[in-house]
Structure formats: C-alpha cells, structure tokens
Amino acid sequence: MTATVLGPTYAEMRDPTLLPAALQERARAARADERDPHNLFNITWRRPDGGVSHLVLPPSLTGVAANIIVLVGAPFPSGSHKVGPAYATLAEAETLDGVRPGTKTVVGPSTGNFGIGTAYVSLLKGYEALVVMPDTMSRERYERIRQYGAELDLTPGSESDVILTLERTHSQYIARPEYLVLAQFELLPNYRFHRFVTGDAALRAAAGYGNGRVAAFVAAPGSAGTLAAGDAIKERYGDAVVVALEPRECATLYRGGQGQHLIEGIGDKMVTLIHNVLTTDYVALIHDEDCVRGLRVLAGGGAPGYGPACACGRSDSGACLRDCLGISAVCNIIGAIKTAKLLGLGPDDNVVTVATDRFDRYPSVLAELERREGPPDAATLDAWAERIFRGADTAEMLDVRGADEKERLHTMKEQLWRRFGYGDELFSAMRGMAYWDEQVALVDEIDRRIAATRG
Q: How many other C-beta atoms lie within 10 A of the C-beta of residue 373?
C-alpha cells in the first residue's frame, strides 16, 4: 500500500486562507508545475489575491440591465471546477473508508471535465485511473485525460448517450473490489462540494455588485452537482430563483424528451440522483448551435465591445474569453440573459452562473463548425452576437415550482435509478429538504477527519 498525498478540507477549498501559511506558500509555488501534488490545495474558486474568480458581462453583450456574474472555473487545477467534486469524492473515500493508492484503480464516469478531473487528481495522489465516457466527445478531452496518465473506456454515442456510460460503469466496475468509482451522478460529495464551496463563491461574487444579493442562479446540469450551489443561495436568500438549462435538442427535464446535441458536459437524458429537484424553479431550453456559434463569437473576431472586462488576470477581453469560456458556459450565459428578462431584473439585481472549463477543450468543435458552415466573416459574427445574446428571449422557460411538476421530476428520477439498485427509502428521503440539509451538515465531521488524517 502506497501513502497518499492528502489534500484540503471542504472549508479550506471554500477559503484557502484557513490553510497554514507554509502550506499556502507551497500551493502558490505549485501553480508553476501542474504535476506538483500541492496543487490539490489550489482546488478553490478563490484567486491568489483572495477574491472569487469571476466575470461580469457588459450590457453591450447581454442586452439586459441586470449584472450577469459568471464564476470562472478555468483557474482550477486541470482547467475546470469539476476537479473539485472529483477530489472531494476521492478524499472522502480515503478518509472514511481507508482507500489508498495501490489498493484501487479509480474510475470516473464522465462526458469530459469530471473525467479530466478524475485523471488529474489520481495522478497527483498516485492512483491508476480509468475514465468511462462516450466516444464522440471533443478530441481535446481525450488528449487531456491521456496526458494525465489515465486509460479510456469509450462507450457508443454522444453526450446524450451517457446512460450507456452509466450502464458500463455499473456492469463492469462498481461492484468489483479492485475499482473505486467516483460516481458523480449519484454520490453526494459532488453535491456537498457545490453546495458548500461553489454556493459560497456565488454569494461572495455577488456581494460586490448591485444590491449584493443573488436574484437567480442559472446552470445547465450534467451531473447536476453545480445546481447544489442554488441550495446555498436559497438558504441565504429565500426568494432567489434557480434555473436549470437543457439543450432544446434533448429536453429531458422540460418534457421527458431525448435526443442528440452539441453542448458537451450537459443534457445527459436523465434526472440525476443527486439533483435536488425541490429547489429547481424553472427549466429553460437553449439551442445547441447557438452555443457553438456563441463560443465562436466570444473566442474573438466579433464586434468591438462584446468582451467583458474580466477577472482572469488579463486586460485584453478577447484573450480572457478565449481562456475562460467553453460551450457550456455560453449555454449558461444565454440562460442567465433569458432569466434576467423573465424576472424583469434591473441594475441592482444579480444573476450568477458558471463557466465550467476553458476554450482549450474546443478548438476541434469550432473547426467542425467552420467545416459545416464555412469561415464566418465579421458581419456574420456580429449577427450571431445580436441574435444569440442580446436577442435571447423568454420562450421555452418552464415553471416547475408546482406540485405536479415536482412529482413528475421525482418520478423520472426514481424510474431511472431503480435500474441501478436504489430503493424506496432513499427516494422518499430525497423528497424532503431535510435530507439535503443533512448532506451538507456532514461537512464538519468529514473535515475534522480529513484534518486529523493529514496531521
């Protein structure tokens, strides 16, 4: 059995200044070498100066008066905030179950970023890793996973066929003792990370704008972990609205639909087990081609003034956007604009959303767009920007606050997850907010044990 490299507690991920000063310094130095295990202590939304990494989009892009605040996941180690729940799930297994390198191969079912995070954290901690994912994701995602030394087990289909990835994971890995599956769609460390860590980041980011409150939190679920931030926001601001986004081409939460789409990382044809549907207020549909074209606009070459002044350490807005946004971020931005219009929000109001990853996952996707449609000229990019962002409307936004809609979503969840061995007791508990509050209440004890193990 090999000793593992121990990392931060949930509280230290939320606020790295809680770390001992010497460890903070080692973590800062580790940023120069992404393979330095002390990068585990850089798993946080906080910038080195202590602020939350975020963008505020200008009205010239959004066409709304409300502040659209985008939490930026690109500065996380591995380039995506999905490394956070991957680390948290492995850290809980080490702390609570005694798992160590050499005893298990770590398995990450994913459509990309969680798999990259699984491979990266496993590399830093000394585990062999394997990622199960669909076989038509972007080339850059596969390359990054292999770069971190993990193997790939590819299942047929696209983002919308992630159910095949789940089936492969359960049939081949989850019951075998030589594997530890970081099952992001069903294990609660994913929920805990986002409710405790991402929720705090959203609240802190919004505190500097408008009235300092969060009027709405908007995110497109893949695993639905990120939506747990909305639970933390609602705990502070009971009138806040949580909006889940889906591809129009795969409107599962919206109307039980199925279909293929191009927005990597979201729209997985299911209500995930860890999705707390009690706190989801609206479901909105976003056209997948709008997200690809919108990314092309924001990657550079559009009309002047569309890029926001950003908090990514760059003054050139185009370079910032190129580094800080991926396809799902564009989906989230469109959804945030639609939400601001639906709610009639003004300049004192804040809508918070998330940019999961960065542009380096998607050059091949934009190359495919150009192959399909040819190189866009400046007039085309300007027209796309006007229609996709400023022209976003409130069509296809479904209110799911009523009892009938909650029952429909709970039933969809139960029908799927019974196939994977979950039963009535859990489903009944998940219908009450007390269950979800109990999950985040476990953080203090988990943190105590992580700290004690670390010494």
A: 13
